[in-house]
């Protein structure tokens, strides 16, 4: 993995905003500004992923991509120590990796049904009602 100018620019910009240092390949430790509920966080993203995020998601607009990184860091909850790259964005996380998404599948012979928020189906006869 080759470090890009854009990656160095990201680290410099975060360091000017507060304090930021690359602690390991693909890891940037950021001390969050005063008044935030957390004191520090780790951005988990490779230089290639940053190029994808800033290039694809933000159409090569470095400033908008940087603002998005800052927004994510400032939105971290008290237990979220990490901002982890996932599909052109950073996601808050309590760990260095994001959990695998769960996949819901229908049982054989089953069917998917949409229901209103009140929990009863409308416009469909009750299949369990005696006739």
Structural overview:
The mean pLDDT is 84. It contains three helices and five strands, in the order αβββααββ. It has a five-stranded mixed sheet. The chain has a domain at 5-93. A hairpin with an 8-residue loop joins β2 (27-31) and β3. By secondary structure, the chain is an alpha+beta fold. It is globular, with a radius of gyration of 22 Å.
Radius of gyration: 22 Å
**Nearest-integer average pLDDT:** 84
The helical percent reads 25-40%
Which strands sit side by side, in order, in the main sheet? Answer: 1-2-3-4-5
Q: Given the helix and strand composition, which structural class is it?
A: alpha+beta
How many strands, which pairing sense, and closed or not: the largest β-sheet? 5 strands, mixed
Stretches where pLDDT is under 50 for at least 5 consecutive residues are none
The total of beta strands comes to 5
H and E string: HEEEHHEE
Q: What's the number of helices?
A: 3
Strand content: 15-25%
The N- and C-terminal alpha carbons lie at a distance of 69 Å
What does the overall shape look like? globular
Name its key features:
alpha+beta, five-stranded mixed sheet, 131 residues
Outline of this structure?
The chain is of the alpha+beta class and 131 residues long. It is built from 3 helices and 5 strands.
């Amino acid at each position: 993995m080759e470090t890009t100018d854009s990656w160095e620019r990201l680290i410099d910009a975060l360091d000017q905003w507060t304090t930021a240092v690359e602690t390991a390949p693909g890891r940037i430790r950021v001390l969050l500004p005063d008044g935030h509920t957390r004191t520090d966080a780790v951005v988990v993203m490779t230089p290639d992923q940053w190029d994808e995020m800033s290039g694809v998601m933000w159409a090569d607009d470095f400033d908008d991509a940087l603002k998005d990184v800052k927004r994510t860091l400032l939105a971290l909850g008290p237990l979220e120590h990490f901002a982890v790259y996932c599909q052109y964005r950073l996601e808050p996380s309590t760990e260095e990796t994001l959990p695998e998404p769960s996949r819901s599948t229908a049982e054989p012979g089953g069917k998917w049904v949409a229901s209103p928020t009140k929990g009863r189906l409308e416009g469909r006869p009750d299949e369990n009602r005696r006739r």
